[in-house]
Structures are given as structure tokens and as C-alpha cells.
Write a structure and sequence with these properties.
72% helix, single chain, mainly alpha, 9 helices
Length: 137
Amino acid sequence: EDKSASIFSRKVEELTATFNTLSSLYGDDDALKMVKIQPGILAFNKNDFGPSLEAFGEKFGVEESKAMIIRNPGLLSTKRLGAEAADDLTMQLSYVVEFTRPIGAAGPIVLVALLSIPALESATGVSRGELFSTFFQ
């Protein structure tokens, strides 16, 4: 028997089982949306999906928790104990993750840099125009 074929078959079966678990919890369309956002979720432990959703649901409500996880599929890696310890910041950060995803990996850095301009102005006493002209000469 060809070992590579059996490994490949097993891997496909595992990925399919993980996707099917996602589909049973979130529906086909949302499962596909999450996989497109973060394909690596198919490598997560599918046995944690239901218990963590249940724990998030106890904190935020089931529908709100589903929406939070769809915004931030990385939360699928959370085990039940981690989900039980989640606070409002987890929900808030799911919006940040969704908002910053389209701007790429450098996006959050650029966003923080732009938000720090008023702090730089007050700390240095230099106006925004002077600050930009210094950087772009």
C-alpha cells in the first residue's frame, strides 16, 4: 500500500470532518466564509468548536457568539476553559480584527501610527503640518 496516498486520504478526511463540524455549528455559508478568511482553522481541533461556542454563548448569547467567531475565526482555536474566561474585550477585539483584516498585516501598525499623531503633537509641541513636512522632505 502506498503510504503517501493513505496519508493524503486521511488528511482530506480530517479536513472534511472539520469543515462538516463547522457547517453543523455555523451553517455552510458561514463555515465557508471563515475558511476563506483563515484557512488554517481546518487544522484546529474540531472537538473544541462546540464546547467553546457553548461557553462563549453563556457569556454573550449564542447568536452574538457565532457572529463574534465569524468575525474572528481564530477564536475557533479556543478551548472551553479559555472561552469561559472570555470577557467583553474578546467581543470588542473581534470587531477590530474584522475591521483591520482588509488592510493587511501592516494595517494595524499604520492605524496605531495615525492615532498617535495627536500624542506626538502635544508631547513635542510641533504641529501636524510641521511633523509631516519633517518626515517627507
